[in-house]
Amino acid sequence: MDKHKKYNKSSLTKAKKQELLNHLEALMQKEKIYKQHGLTLNLLASLLNTNRTYISQVINEFHKMTFNNFINELRVAEAQNLLTDSKHKNMTYEGIAHESGFKSRSAFNEAFKKITGMTPSEYLDKIIQKTG
Predict the structure, then answer these.
(1) By CB neighbour count within 10 A (0-12 exposed, 13-18 middle, 19+ buried), where does 130 fall?
(2) Measuring CA to CA, which residue among 4, 1, 43, 5 is closest to residue 24?
(3) 1 lies in a domain?
(4) Domain boundary among 38, 64, 90
(5) How confident is the model at residue 1 (pLDDT cuts 50, 70, 90)?
(6) pLDDT in tens, 8-54
(7) DSSP letter (8 states) at residue 87
(8) Which has the least CB within 10 A, 10, 63, 128, 131?
(9) Does residue 2 belong to any structural domain of this protein?
């Protein structure tokens, strides 16, 4: 049985899925659009000249997660880079949250803990212990 049964009736071809995935990856990796506050599935679909159903399908099938989880994973990875980069050592957690694309420190803390299993401060303490 197809593990993406909900997309069995989708008119999205394999070639179009790959094209959307390539454009999605470029937007995320090169332009780091995930850092944009207020990024929504509708806005992303518009930027990719497609509809929200197709981009959601591509994220679900290729990344095995929802749009929100996909964006939060990218934002947490960005925050981890900022936390460990000495150029940003004087940034507050709020600053790092904002720079990574989170609207609030609480949303940042919640996503960070869900993805890494620790709070940003615990993560930083662990990094300092390893390098200290």
Answers:
(1) exposed
(2) 43
(3) no
(4) 64
(5) very low
(6) 788 889 999 999 999 999 999 999 999 999 999 999 999 999 999 99
(7) G
(8) 131
(9) no
